[in-house]
Amino acid sequence: MEDSDKKKLILNFIKSQKLAVLATVNQKSGPEAAVIEFGQTDDLEIIFDTLTSYRKYKNLSENSKVAIVVGWDNDVTIQYEGEAVELAGEEKIKCQELYFEKNPEARRWSDNPEIKYYKVIPKWIRYSDLNVKPWNIIELNF
Question: Is pLDDT of 72 > 90?
Answer without folding.
Answer: no
